[in-house]
Amino acid sequence: MNFKESDPAIRQAVEKGLIAAPEKKAKTPRAKRPPKVTAPALRWTLDITLPLKTVSAANAREHWAARHRRVADERMAVRLGFSGQNVMNPPCFDSVVVKFTRLGGRRLDDDNLRSAMKGVRDAVAEWLQVDDGSDVAVWEYGQEPGGPFGVRIQITAEG
């Protein structure tokens, strides 16, 4: 029969010696788990400078076909820049930070800087295989006016 040890009548009967105390199950020792080992986060960095003159689409008064050709040329230049660095496929990552720096020319305000880099950003997002609106990638912009024209792309991936 199964009796609960906490029942007062059972405790009283055990104390008077009327019944034997129920046997307690011996606890089986648990196997020790190995310690949790975490690998350090992997970090991958790529820095490319392309001789590319970017134009703010917000201020450019150009025909839609001319704009299409310009953006297609920017995207092709970025693809060629990656293949010139012998990086055809991006690494696997959990998060990525991409910084675009516009070199040369005059200083642009934030809106115009982003619109000038839109074609480059689309090409980098396509290469990274992420949506350029996703939370996986953080997009940063900077500029260094004066000097020769170009675009510096710095990619730092972790995970």
What is this structure's SSE topology?
Layout: H1 8-16, E1 43-50, H2 64-84, E2 95-103, H3 110-116, H4 118-128, E3 137-144, E4 150-158
Parallel strand pairs: 2-3
Antiparallel strand pairs: 1-4, 2-4
Compact summary:
By secondary structure, this protein is of the alpha+beta class. It has helices spanning 8-16, 64-84, 110-116, 118-128; strands spanning 43-50, 95-103, 137-144, 150-158.
Say what the CATH topology is.
Answer: 60s Ribosomal Protein L30, Chain: A
- Helix segment count? 4
Average pLDDT taken over every residue: 84
Assign the structural class, choosing from mainly alpha, mainly beta, alpha/beta, alpha+beta, or little secondary structure: alpha+beta
Helix and strand string, N-terminal first?
A: HEHEHHEE
What is the strand arrangement across the widest sheet? 1-4-2-3
The CATH first-level class comes to Alpha Beta
Low-confidence sequence ranges: none
CATH architecture: 2-Layer Sandwich
Radius of gyration: 33 Å
The CATH superfamily bears the name Holliday junction resolvase RusA
User: So what's the overall shape?
Assistant: rod-shaped
Largest sheet: 4 strands, mixed
Task: Say how many strands there are.
Answer: 4
User: How many domain regions?
Assistant: 1
Strand content: 15-25%
State the helicity in percent bands: 25-40%
Please give the alpha-carbon distance between the first and last residues.
58 Å
Would you write up a description of this structure?
The chain has 159 residues and is an alpha+beta fold. The protein has one domain: Holliday junction resolvase RusA (60s Ribosomal Protein L30, Chain: A). Helices cover 30% and strands 21% of the residues. It has four helices and four strands; from the N terminus they run H-E-H-E-H-H-E-E. The protein has helices at 8-16, 64-84, 110-116, 118-128, and strands spanning 43-50, 95-103, 137-144, 150-158. A four-stranded mixed beta sheet has the order 1-4-2-3, covered by helices on one side. The chain is rod-shaped. It starts with 7 loop residues before the first helix and ends with a strand.
